[in-house]
Write a structure and sequence with these properties.
Protein name: Nucleoside hydrolase
Keywords: Glycosidase, Hydrolase
Shape: globular
InterPro entries: Inosine/uridine_hydrolase_dom (IPR001910), IUNH (IPR023186), Ribo_hydro-like (IPR036452)
Largest sheet: 9 strands, mixed
Bound molecules: beta-D-ribofuranose, calcium ion
Radius of gyration: 18 Å
GO cellular component, one term: cytosol
Organism: Kineosporia babensis
């Protein structure tokens, strides 16, 4: 079993990732930490509890964490996920409540209490994780690996070059990437490739099962571009794919490369920079005085049909 902490900004595709992780027999979700990103922290916590209630999940501790990035204001992705962050579904939370602790404290306690190091799965801006690593560096050896949805080798989405989670809090991403923890990056290059068909989405919506209906509504959410009014439906499983890459890595192609994040203001702020000039183990070139970059196992492509089947 992979024992994990999920760090989320639920979020349409975070919801699908939670569904997959909670229901997959090979994963034990020890805690869920919430962070502002796709929606406000308050909405993210409510959405997360609503998904757990829908799943009739065991009482997994859920905590609210950072309400905004380290140095910038929050910039919620309302037009991608809906004003409530969850396609307007407003899932009931039943009797579920968040724990009293801050998410950083819940993460610390969960890591320190576990018999074995845990996998931290970050599907959101990395603010909580950066605060954790800076505040409690003793947890680093309790983290088996950080698997994060974020960044891209090629194109961005929040900007031409930057992916939303890294763009939303680039300093936090910098702290995490340069912390020394083993890293797996699930970026936009693969994120966009695992997409359900219109038929599957329609079948799910028409199902008599509530969970199917919700899944159909999430996959079929119609995004309305606030500037142009254009409607887009992308049906990608998004963050859920990053969890699939944990349970079934053989369905993905990974390569290990040096990775850094751009912090400078300007067109490329928040871009992940992947240095693919030389193979690891060769004498990789770094400008004089520059520290060697951290490396990450980077998912570059997937077998989309197989991943969808798994999901
Ligand atoms: C990421 O940003 C959010 O919109 C999604 O939940 C995903 O984690 C994609 O850039
Ligand atoms: Ca997310």
């Amino acid at each position: 079993k992979r024992n994990v902490i999920l760090d989320v900004d639920t979020g349409i595709d975070d919801a699908m990732a939670i569904m997959f992780a909670v229901r997959h027999p090979g994963i034990d979700v020890r805690a869920i930490s919430c962070v502002a990103g796709n929606a406000s922290l308050e909405r993210v916590v409510t959405n997360t509890l609503g998904v757990l209630e829908l799943l009739d999940a065991p009482p997994i501790p859920v905590a609210g964490g950072a309400q905004q990035p380290l140095i910038e204001p929050s910039r919620p992705a309302s037009w991608v996920h809906g004003a409530d962050g969850l396609a307007g579904l407003d899932l009931p939370v039943g009797g579920r409540k968040p724990v009293q602790q801050h998410a950083v404290e819940l993460m610390r306690q969960t890591l320190m209490a576990a018999a074995e190091p845990l996998t931290v799965v970050c599907l959101a801006p990395m603010t909580n994780l950066a605060l954790l690593l800076r505040t409690h560096p003793e947890v680093i050896e309790r983290i088996e690996r950080v698997v994060f949805m974020g960044g891209a080798v090629a194109d961005g989405n929040a900007t031409a070059l930057a992916e939303f989670n890294v763009w939303h809090d680039p300093e936090a991403a910098y702290v995490v990437l340069n912390s020394g923890v083993p890293l797996t990056m699930y970026g936009l290059d693969v994120f966009h490739t695992v997409e359900a068909s219109a038929e599957t989405t329609a079948d799910l919506k028409a199902s008599g099962q509530r969970l199917d209906q919700v899944l159909g509504a999430l996959l079929g959410y119609e995004m309305v571009n606030p500037l142009t009014g254009a409607i887009t439906v992308n049906r990608v499983i998004g963050d859920a794919g990053a969890v699939c890459a944990i349970t079934s890595p053989e369905l993905f192609r990974f390569e290990t490369w040096p990775l850094q994040v751009e912090l400078a203001p300007g067109l490329s702020r928040g871009q992940t920079v992947v240095d693919r000039r030389r193979a690891i183990g060769e004498d990789t070139f770094y400008p004089t005085g520059q520290r060697p970059w951290p490396t990450a196992d980077i998912a570059l492509s997937a077998d989309p049909e197989a991943v969808l089947q798994l999901f």
